[in-house]
Specification:
Blueprint: E1 2-3, E2 20-23, E3 42-45, H1 46-50, E4 57-61, E5 77-81, E6 91-96, E7 99-108, E8 111-115, E9 124-125, E10 132-142
Antiparallel strand pairs: 1-7, 2-3, 4-5, 5-10, 6-7, 6-10, 7-8, 8-9
């Protein structure tokens, strides 16, 4: 995902009211359901489940196909947390020379790369003089199935 000319990202509004959904506490197998499944439930608040630090959490919509290999598709919405320190291997929202992009962060032996998860896109090696800011770490992908 590469996006140019974006304005400053807007903070995600998280309502104070809880949004409770029913959550089943057993694994979901791709086979026959358990008869005991009807009797085991708990409640899950999506805010607590998806957001670690609401002041530092933003949502970005994906444009492009460079991350298809790990299930991030155009139109998906990524939850990005700015309070998490990016590490080697994390999926990050990076700003390289004023362009926003989502890629896998590679930091080894003094070399920094932004790696696409689609073989059609070569890794971007960050060169001396280029400005790279790791804007945040992608924590969740909201991928609509229906």
């Amino acid at each position: 995902m590469t996006t140019t000319g974006l304005s400053t990202p807007q903070q995600l509004h998280v309502p104070e009211a809880k949004t409770w959904l029913q959550m089943c506490t057993w694994p979901v197998w791709a086979g026959f359901p358990s008869p005991a499944a009807d009797h085991t439930r708990k409640r899950l608040d999506l805010n607590e489940h998806l957001i670690r630090n609401k002041e530092a959490t933003f949502i970005f919509r994906v444009k492009g196909d460079s991350m298809n290999g790990i299930g991030i598709y155009e139109g998906d919405e990524l939850i990005v947390d700015r309070s998490i320190e990016a590490r080697h291997g994390n999926i990050v929202l990076a700003v390289l020379n004023d362009d926003y992009t989502v890629k896998r962060l590679h930091r080894r032996g003094g070399v920094v790369k932004l790696i696409a998860e689609n073989p059609l896109y070569p890794p971007t090696i960050v060169k001396d003089g280029e400005e790279l800011v790791i804007w945040g770490v992608v924590t969740h992908n909201l991928h609509k199935l229906y």
